[in-house]
Design goal:
The chain is 53% helix and 16% strand. It is an alpha+beta fold and 486 residues long. It folds into 3 domains: 183 residues, PAS domain (Beta-Lactamase), CATH 3.30.450.20; 106 residues, Orthogonal Bundle (Helix Hairpins); 147 residues, Heat Shock Protein 90, CATH 3.30.565. InterPro entries: HAMP_dom, HATPase_C_sf, HATPase_dom, His_kinase_dom, HisK_dim/P_dom, HisK_dim/P_sf, Sensor-like_sf, Sig_transdc_His_kin-like_C.
């Protein structure tokens, strides 16, 4: 299950349980609370009416003529009075309070409903307790199995001359307040449903926000887990590392920690890759130097001693070249892309400086260097452009036979170096520019370091340009294509 679904499910579960228990408590408490309030009102009403009935009870008019006594007439008039009252949002169309008066023997003298006059109420709990001076109240169902038919009875003593002369009882059917209870329950249910819907909206919003932040971190992790500049083959420029996602709180701390880990891993991969490649390249010259050194410890003819000494010098020079170019490439690979420069660098100037630098080597090998084409200028680093052209010319000199020529051709935003060597097998063309990759020279030796073209490739990456190779039969053509603007 996805993280978002888990969070949303957990949010709904917690809120659902909380809403259920809260609503459950309120629903359970509504009916008792309403009945408590109703009973409290009935108590006050009973004691008030008992005080009003005390005069008629004392002079005997209530017992002699219950329906015509002053108290009875007033109660009947109120009971028969039509009403149209709105209590908040509940409509009341009739007065449903029932009043009964009993004597000290529990015999009913007056009943506002006109039903139980003369009945014996002495056995009812509310009557007997009131006559004993206690609080008398009861709730009785008209239908034993139907709580909706419950009637609440509250009694108060009728006193005259400090003596209890009767009991007045007020009663109210539960159905009279059931509408209020039902209305309250419906409101609470609607409120509960609304609360759940709002909670669902808030939960969805929070979950979505959190999932979006986590997805930013996941996307960032997926981008940085791919090959870095130092892990690939170097043929394509490594994409820039994505920016650290801006997420708040602990997620932001996690993003920064991931970025720090990425930088450390890149540095480790860079070092490990170089160590492996450098170790491989050092094996041959170190072994040759060691072998020549061991032989030089013995008594050798002068010619052999000169041969092995020259071998030591040659391999030492190869190691020196390797170290120099390795340091040069390392500096270039750690260098960020070039900032905007003014378009003042001339390709002809750079090519002429490179040719002048390698002219002595070309003369020693009997190779003629030629510069052709028209000049162009651009926003490039002159020193790096010269270094790139020098490395291409040096590579061409290594593979060109004596008596041939190396042609440097200039074109708008392009420099091409053409040699007359054997070229490169098509199956190995894609490997040109990889660190430490070399092909045999025409004399069968592998005297190169395999870093010259890597340096050229990195220089073109820094400029946003491209390095291309093509076999020309005979020879190999290497082209530097610079961007129009940088």
């Amino acid at each position: 299950m996805r993280l978002g679904l888990r969070l949303l499910f957990a949010f709904f579960l917690i809120n659902g349980l909380a809403a259920f228990f809260v609503l459950r408590v309120f629903m359970v408490e509504i009916k008792p609370s309403v009945r408590k309030v109703t009973e409290d009102t009935l108590v006050e009403t009973a004691y008030l009416l008992a005080a009003l009935a005390s005069d008629d009870m004392a002079n005997g008019s209530l017992a002699a003529s219950p329906s015509t006594s002053r108290f009875a007439r007033h109660v009947q008039a109120v009971a028969e009075q039509p009403v149209q009252i709105w209590i908040w949002d509940t409509r009341k169309a009739a007065l449903d309070l029932r009043v009964t008066v009993t004597n000290t023997q529990g015999r009913v003298l007056f009943d506002s409903a006109g039903q139980d006059v003369g009945a014996d109420y002495s056995r009812w709990r509310n009557i007997s307790r009131t006559l004993r001076g206690e609080y008398g109240a009861r709730t009785t169902r008209d239908v034993a199995d139907d709580d909706a038919t419950s009637v609440m009875y509250v009694s108060a003593p009728i006193q005259a001359g400090g003596q209890v002369v009767g009991v007045l009882t007020v009663s109210k059917a539960a159905r009279a307040v059931q509408n209020i209870i039902d209305s309250s329950e419906q409101k609470m249910l609607r409120g509960g449903v609304l609360f759940l819907l709002l909670s669902a909206g808030v939960g969805f919003a929070i979950t979505w926000w959190l999932v979006v932040q986590v997805r930013k971190l996941r996307s960032y992790a997926q981008h940085v887990q791919g090959p870095t500049l130092h892990e690939g083959d170097g043929r394509q420029p490594a994409p820039a590392a994505p920016p650290v996602p801006e997420v708040p709180g602990e997620l932001g701390d996690l993003a920064l920690a991931m970025d720090s880990m990425r930088r450390r891993l890149e540095g480790r991969d860079y070092i490990e890759g170089y160590v492996r490649a450098l170790t491989h390249e050092l094996k041959s010259p170190v072994a040759a130097i060691r072998g020549a050194g061991e032989l030089l410890q013995d008594e050798l003819p002068a010619a052999d001693r000169q041969l092995f000494a020259q071998q030591v010098m040659d391999q030492s020079q190869r190691l020196q070249n390797l170290v120099d170019q390795l340091m040069q490439l390392t500096q270039l690979e750690q260098r960020p892309p070039l900032a905007a420069l003014r378009p003042t660098t001339s390709l002809r100037d750079c090519a002429e400086l490179a040719l002048h630098q390698l002219q002595a080597t070309a003369v020693q090998k009997g190779i003629h260097l030629t510069l052709q084409g028209n000049d162009s200028a651009g926003a490039w680093d002159a020193q790096l452009v010269q270094l790139a052209i020098s490395n291409l010319i040096a590579n061409a000199l290594d593979f060109s036979p004596g008596g041939s020529q190396v042609v440097v051709q200039l074109a708008p935003h392009r420099v091409t170096v053409q040699d007359s060597g054997p070229g490169v097998p098509e199956g190995l063309m894609h490997k040109l520019g990889e660190r430490f990759f070399t092909t045999p020279r025409p004399n069968g030796e592998r005297s190169g370091t395999g870093l010259g073209l890597s340096i050229v490739l990195r220089i073109m990456q820094l400029h946003g340009g491209q390095l291309h190779f093509a076999n020309t039969h005979p020879g190999l053509r290497a082209s530097l294509d610079f961007p129009v603007s940088h």
